[in-house]
Design goal:
The protein has 190 residues and is α+β, with helices and mostly antiparallel strands. Helices cover 37% and strands 13% of the residues.
């Protein structure tokens, strides 16, 4: 790098109180940050994540985990409770922090909706007492799942799927699936 005489004087004046490094072998040189950080699709999807962590109403461990959306027939919840809708996709939240669980659930639900999957199994673990980690995640699930408009119903799973340590979730049909169903029924009617 060459300086003209004026720049050289300015540089010397700016550097007059700087002392040179004696032993450069112990210095850790860091790479300069790139102008644009790489974008991760999952990170971008989390920007829309409406699920929150914070003030939580803990659901007692003795209370069954269940919900049915307005307008859904009670028979849907009954069949779900009996395990008559086999899970098509599973999510395991055992030993995950509340924040990881929040992120994982959001991405899991987005994937299920994107892939037109309707029956889910979420494993949260069994709680020994109301303040145990598994019951905290279970209580968050109770709140979070109700925030998805696509959730028709959810309830505790059958023993062979985890019992009180897991829950079944039934999702609404997507518009695409409804359209395909109408087309199939129209072909049969001909």
């Amino acid at each position: 790098m060459t300086f003209n005489p004026d720049e050289s004087d300015i540089f010397r004046h700016a550097m007059e109180d700087v002392t040179p490094l004696k032993d450069c072998s112990t210095i850790m040189w860091q790479k300069s940050p790139s102008a644009k950080p790489p974008r991760d699709r999952q990170w971008e999807e989390q920007l829309d994540n409406p699920l929150t962590i914070g003030l939580l109403e803990v659901v007692p461990g003795t209370q069954p985990l269940e919900f049915i959306a307005d307008g859904i027939q009670p028979g849907v919840l009954d069949k779900l409770r009996q395990g008559k809708y086999p899970p098509q996709l599973n999510l395991n939240l055992i030993k995950q922090s509340a924040e990881n669980s929040r992120q994982m659930l959001y991405l899991f639900m987005r994937q299920a909706l994107r892939d037109d999957i309707r029956n889910l199994l979420i494993i949260h673990g069994k709680a020994r007492h109301d303040t145990s980690h598994a019951n905290i995640i279970r209580s968050y699930l109770m709140r979070w799942l109700q925030q998805f408009d696509e959730v028709q119903a959810f309830c505790s799973a059958q023993p062979h799927h985890g019992g009180s340590g897991a829950c079944y979730v039934a999702l609404r049909k997507s518009e695409r699936a409804r359209l395909e169903n109408r087309e199939q029924n129209a072909r049969r009617a001909r």
